[in-house]
């Protein structure tokens, strides 16, 4: 058997060093648990970074993958693909959309949305109307266009010159957005809740005001629901809690139940803008990924599961608030559904490392915000276990204890 250290050493030699990896070699997953190469179990409150909304290896998704893998894994988008057609129908019937473009990731879905916005506006108003406004602290992907749309200097560093035609304004500040709109603006692109930016929730009425502003200026409203979508916030899509509909929505992460797939959902009249030859993806919407996504979507689009997410999120937030009362290190708790952040008065990385040693998987965003995005099936007992682990870590931190 290959040892954990052997796997790590080999990976450091042959795999691109684009991630700061923890010394964990993952080999198996079950529900809310991840198992490493040595058989140690971890309580997984990161869920593949909000991908495993149904937990690891959900039986319905596994069965769909197995069946489809024995039938047809890939063919070209030159042909009609039944599972792709069925998934597009499910997404459109459950949202505002009329058509769906399929790709392989969230960044690709956002690329498609940016291209759609510029092409629609260029066709209607001329090429000078190409500017897209997004938010500071946003995150939209790692391609050059989505890095340009992302409002974080640390993500953009080293990749100049970025694509022209992007502006960034403070998230949640409708007046700043109004001031930023000009004659060259064609679209506004926002996350309903910022994930990588530190689980930042806009003030009530903000997204509705953005929708009205876009209507007034004939701007496309693009909502990046890659992290918030598919049940994460307690409704199928986060925009459904804001009494609005976007023109374009991007999805990925939880859509395939762990299998890579992205989607851009658009409503008429924008849904026909990207016609034949204007965009594409070799693997986008392939039979295997869309079969997995159908199975995942049918499980996630379940009123009982969505109600459970909201109720469990309320319980989780209450437990974290109690923890905050015991530990002044915790500055605040915020979230919606099972997308929750805890702001600390210190760097979060040491807390994440200590949690890993104790068998708990979490991560830190924005430097000092612990992010919790567990599977939507997480139990109260598992949440209580997390609280106990964090309680001990914070107690040691307060006492100045440095050992695990």
Automatic annotation (TrEMBL):
Give the note. Answer: May also have succinyldiaminopimelate aminotransferase activity, thus carrying out the corresponding step in lysine biosynthesis.
The molecular function GO annotations come to: identical protein binding; N2-acetyl-L-ornithine:2-oxoglutarate 5-aminotransferase activity; pyridoxal phosphate binding; taurine-pyruvate aminotransferase activity
What is this enzyme's catalytic activity, as reactions?
taurine + pyruvate = sulfoacetaldehyde + L-alanine; N(2)-acetyl-L-ornithine + 2-oxoglutarate = N-acetyl-L-glutamate 5-semialdehyde + L-glutamate
The record's top EC class is transferase
Self-association and partners: Homodimer.
Q: Which GO terms describe its cellular component?
A: cytoplasm
Record flagged with keyword Signal: no
Protein's cellular compartments:
Cytoplasm
What is the name of this protein? Acetylornithine aminotransferase
**Which domain of life does the UniProt lineage start with?**
Bacteria
Residues with the N6-(pyridoxal phosphate)lysine modification: 253
Q: Which family does it belong to?
A: Belongs to the class-III pyridoxal-phosphate-dependent aminotransferase family. ArgD subfamily.
What are the protein's UniProt keywords? Amino-acid biosynthesis, Aminotransferase, Arginine biosynthesis, Cytoplasm, Pyridoxal phosphate, Pyruvate, Transferase
What's the cofactor?
pyridoxal 5'-phosphate
Biological process, per Gene Ontology? L-arginine biosynthetic process
Where pyridoxal 5'-phosphate binds, per the record, is at 106-107, 139, 224-227, 282
Which residues does N(2)-acetyl-L-ornithine bind?
A: 142, 281
**Which Pfam families does the annotation name?**
Aminotran_3
**Entry's InterPro entries?**
AcOrn/SuccOrn_fam, Aminotrans_3, Aminotrans_3_PPA_site, Class-III_PLP-dep_AT, PyrdxlP-dep_Trfase, PyrdxlP-dep_Trfase_major, PyrdxlP-dep_Trfase_small
Q: How is the cofactor bound?
A: Binds 1 pyridoxal phosphate per subunit.
Give the source species: Pelovirga terrestris
Cell inner membrane found in the keyword field: no
**Recorded E.C. number(s)?**
2.6.1.11
Q: State which pathway it belongs to.
A: Amino-acid biosynthesis; L-arginine biosynthesis; N(2)-acetyl-L-ornithine from L-glutamate: step 4/4
């Amino acid at each position: 058997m290959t040892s954990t250290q052997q796997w790590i050493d080999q990976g450091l030699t042959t795999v691109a060093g684009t991630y700061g990896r923890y010394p964990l070699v993952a080999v198996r997953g079950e529900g809310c648990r991840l198992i490493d190469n040595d058989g140690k179990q971890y309580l997984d409150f990161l869920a593949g970074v909000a991908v495993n909304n149904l937990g690891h290896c959900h039986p319905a998704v596994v069965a769909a993958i197995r069946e489809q893998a024995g039938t047809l894994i890939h063919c070209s988008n030159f042909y009609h693909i039944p599972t792709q057609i069925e998934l597009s129908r499910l997404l459109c019937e459950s949202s505002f959309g009329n058509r769906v473009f399929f790709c392989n990731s969230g960044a690709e879905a956002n690329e498609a949305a940016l291209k759609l916005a510029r092409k629609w506006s260029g066709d209607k108003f001329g090429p000078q109307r190409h500017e897209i406004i997004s938010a500071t602290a946003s995150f939209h992907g790692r391609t050059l266009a989505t890095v340009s749309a992302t409002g974080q200097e640390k993500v953009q560093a080293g990749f100049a010159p970025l694509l022209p035609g992007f502006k960034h304004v403070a998230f949640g500040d409708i007046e700043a957005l109004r001031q930023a709109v000009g004659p060259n603006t064609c679209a506004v692109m926002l996350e309903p809740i910022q994930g990588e930016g530190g689980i930042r929730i806009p003030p009530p009425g903000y997204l509705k005001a953005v929708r009205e502003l876009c209507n007034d200026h004939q701007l496309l409203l693009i909502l990046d629901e890659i992290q918030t979508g598919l049940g994460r916030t307690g409704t199928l899509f986060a925009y459904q809690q804001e009494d609005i509909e976007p023109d374009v929505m991007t999805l990925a992460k939880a859509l395939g139940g762990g299998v890579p797939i992205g989607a851009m959902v658009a409503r008429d009249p924008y849904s026909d803008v990207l016609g034949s030859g204007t965009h594409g993806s070799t693997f986008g919407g392939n039979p295997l990924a869309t079969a997995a996504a159908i199975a995942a979507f049918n499980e996630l689009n379940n009123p009982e599961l969505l109600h459970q997410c909201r109720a469990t999120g309320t319980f989780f937030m209450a437990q974290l608030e109690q923890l905050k009362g015991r530990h002044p290190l915790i500055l605040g708790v915020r979230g919606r559904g099972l997308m929750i952040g805890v702001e600390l008065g210190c760097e979060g990385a040491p807390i994440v490392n200590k949690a890993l040693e104790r068998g708990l998987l979490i991560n830190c965003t924005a430097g000092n915000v612990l992010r919790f995005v567990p599977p939507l099936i997480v139990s109260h007992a598992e949440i209580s276990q997390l609280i106990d682990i964090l309680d001990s870590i914070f107690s040691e931190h307060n006492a100045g204890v440095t050992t695990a």
